[in-house]
Amino acid sequence: MEYYEQIVKNRNSCRAFADKKVGDDVLNALLTYYEDDESDLVDEIKTELKFYVGTVWEGLKDCVGYNGFCIKAPAYMVIFSDVADHYLENAGYIAQGLTLKMTELGLAACWQTINDADETKRALGAETDKAVACVVAFGYRDPDNDEKKAPKKSLDEMTDGIKYGQDIDTALFYNELEDGLRAIAHAQSFQNRQPYRIIVDYDQIVLVGLPDDLTTEADRLLNYGIVMFNFYAVMWAIRPETPKWSFEPVTDRDLCLPPDVTYVAKCKL
Ligand SMILES: Cc1cc2nc3c(=O)[nH]c(=O)nc-3n(C[C@H](O)[C@H](O)[C@H](O)COP(=O)(O)O)c2cc1C
């Protein structure tokens, strides 16, 4: 409850930052979290976390950000990753853990869409064999920034019961899942489009992707990683068993997915 209320619900994107440096102590706290506590979706995929403080905006502005507009921030976090099946969901999941850690540390952040990953890597002068997977601008929110919270889909719109498109019996299913499901409905997504839904059953939840012409393949996969992390983090704070997402298909029941809806992953409860 506390983690959902204080961290997940309180986070919102920031597009105007104070002119205040992000100190080494804060960067070290983020790095320690990444190295010691971070959970991931696919263990075998190797990632690297790098911070860029100060002068990289000039280089980044041509390759990341909506409509070629990169948010100016005192610092940028970049996740580099080996390229393998599910590497973008995995990187999105890891970067969301770090984004929520930033919220805990009093920082604000804004994810940046990557328009050209190779160009971004060149602009950063990154010496690594891994690919750029996520870019997040961060720093301290400008006290005069009165950016409003983005309106989100209701829990009702976000969840189905047992099969796709079937009304959910909220009294039966929400119960202890409610905060975890709200964390999914509250997650950030490319242009706040939230093109996904959750099918809740007695023993598992399933994440499915909805068709959306505006969201690119890369941003769609990053979105999925973000919502999977939000659910994991809130449930983990509520109860001792760690929920684990799996990309294995569902073979023991019919989810009744329409042809344009894609299965993403399931999480046993
Ligand atoms: C994959 C991804 C890419 C995004 N790219 C940008 C971007 O380039 N510029 C921007 O201002 N916001 C970007 N955002 C932030 C979303 O617009 C924001 O999360 C959404 O509007 C919901 O608002 P909230 O984060 O305050 O909940 C991105 C978010 C995601 C998940």
Describe what this molecule looks like in 3D.
The protein has helices at residues 2-8, 24-37, 57-60, 87-104, 117-124, 155-158, 170-173, 178-185, 217-238, and strands spanning 47-53, 75-81, 108-112, 131-139, 159-161, 196-200, 204-209, 245-246, 262-268. It has 269 residues and is α+β, with helices and mostly antiparallel strands. A 5-stranded mixed sheet has the order 5-6-7-9-8. The chain has a 4-stranded antiparallel sheet with strand order 1-2-4-3, sandwiched between helices. A hairpin with a 3-residue loop joins strand 6 and strand 7. Flavin mononucleotide (FMN) is lined by residues 12-13, 15, 65-66, 71, 110-113, 150, 188-192, 219, 222-223, 226.
Topology summary:
Layout: H1 2-8, H2 24-37, E1 47-53, H3 57-60, E2 75-81, H4 87-104, E3 108-112, H5 117-124, E4 131-139, H6 155-158, E5 159-161, H7 170-173, H8 178-185, E6 196-200, E7 204-209, H9 217-238, E8 245-246, E9 262-268
Parallel strand pairs: 5-6
Antiparallel strand pairs: 1-2, 2-4, 3-4, 6-7, 7-9, 8-9
The structure holds flavin mononucleotide.
